[in-house]
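Quick entry between incubations.
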Amino acid sequence: SQQGEEDPQALSIQEGENATMNCSYKTSINNLQWYRQNSGRGLVHLILIRSNEREKHSGRLRVTLDTSKKSSSLLITASRAADTASYFCATVGYSTLTFGKGTMLLVSP
Amino acid sequence: DVKVTQSSRYLVKRTGEKVFLECVQDMDHENMFWYRQDPGLGLRLIYFSYDVKMKEKGDIPEGYSVSREKKERFSLILESASTNQTSMYLCASSPRTGRGGNIQYFGAGTRLSVL
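Done. Structure below.
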């Protein structure tokens, strides 16, 4: 399996702080995606970064990609309680995605 | 907005029952997927389909089958439910491979309990 691995498994911060989650993967990729899952719900796509990109921004999200280290990071700036969720990275195969086990983020008011 | 609808949010079934999980998408997507999600194991792909009547096994197809008779509908079938199939089941769809970066759109999930 090409499963990515997120780190840390769980992260607890205060509102206003930044949250950083990391993802490592094993094989070459075309792109890497990050998804969010609120408790007991489906996943929602957040951002996609292509293998020839090093950094991408979307609102309070910043994603980096280092293909030489086979790793990616997701930074959420100025966290809010509503950011509490699990975050997954996904590597892209031909038709399918392979998801990591996720990072559970808790943002306390 | 893409909408992926799973027919049930919660299901309770008995061991040995035949179980149908239904998923419908409204964006004319070619690809559809079924995952199960378990604590500590993440999302694992059961089956996917890239066209009507086509299906491909994922990582854990044993004990499951699928049906795709219409483009918008993808059904997951547990022929004889077992307790180890108690899980959260997630359906997803995506445009044809190579378009849109293979971004997947998920339903809200069905939490299945097999007693």
